[in-house]
């Protein structure tokens, strides 16, 4: 696997098809599945292309849908700019939805980009078994394609709890509008794909940095078992990761996250999305969508360190809530590594000091162009998942050491929780502060059945004190705020126009 994953290319591959008519000649100059999939390099490039949409999904999209759509983050209202409803509706839990359909653009992006990954993985999987390429490459490429398909179907299941179950390339338009699979059907396929991927993929130490590994596939599979409350099955997968010797916590919490050009795919990283600072078009700019606005150039440069800082206006998104800030215990080192504060001279608010997400605020060269990677699974989450699976099986003494590993790194004393109920709350608390702004919070609230209770109480606090939640005097909390607290998003209206099955 000599091709680096960071140099993925987005291929426009023709649909896979077979013809019994040997007189039908495909021009050798046309890029299609007939002419392209011939060499080892072709298959490596094809699976590289399946990684590409991950950069779009996690550059802006995922943290709006999972962190701002929770009690972790909000937006800073700028009445001169006006509301950006696609974002503010997420934070206010009033996403317009009718008959299971929504017009929210962020939801549409998540749907389309995940199905783009699925389509590209399907193209590889349809042809890989018959390919005359080295067996080691075949196994590795196939394992990556299965992992990526499973990961995308996990996102579809968690966002929508239903979706078309496409497992083969679509060769004609009529096949694109597949019947909707249920959540259970999607999860069954994810389990099948992830299980097969585990047996095909190499461990982290033998895999090219940035690519899927057997450990990443186990983490994904365990994630599904945690959702399904199959605690013993989750424990099996998580213990295999822990005992593999492939992973460990970074001594310093802040070092678990990459810099713009270094500290990537560390020993704590189980799987992360790769970005590359520079002009190749592989960069991210998600830091810039995690800032309170408006912000002047001289203020922005204190966060980014760029040589050409530019002022930013508009409405800031993904701003840490007071609720999250107060969730950290005194002395928790993760707080200052995760959340910073900045004073904005141009803010319309009486209090011009705002928090921002420091976790990803790493110096980089040029404005709006950075290379920090995005974490999907970290070893600390493996430890907390394992603790939770053990707690739910009432293996309390076995669970506490895994919680304490995470707490010790944070500079905190061992947990004092002793009962199953108290330990359950303890692991929920650790997940919130350990994994803040890693696109986990909404999924955790849904998975543990706490969404309605937590968000209703949070909404009451927002409506009772709008200033505390970043509204200026002229701003107002929408009258329909917190009226659509549901565990899943509606399917995108733009796709419903194309399918009779929605």
From TrEMBL:
Residues 367-497 form the RagB/SusD domain. Residues 1-17 form the signal peptide. It is found in: Cell outer membrane. CDD domains: SusD (cd08977). GO terms for cellular component: cell outer membrane. Keywords: Cell outer membrane, Membrane, Signal. Pfam families: SusD-like_3 (PF14322), SusD_RagB (PF07980). Residues 21-225 form the SusD-like N-terminal domain. The keyword Signal applies. Belongs to the SusD family. This is RagB/SusD domain-containing protein. It comes from Runella slithyformis (strain ATCC 29530 / DSM 19594 / LMG 11500 / NCIMB 11436 / LSU 4).
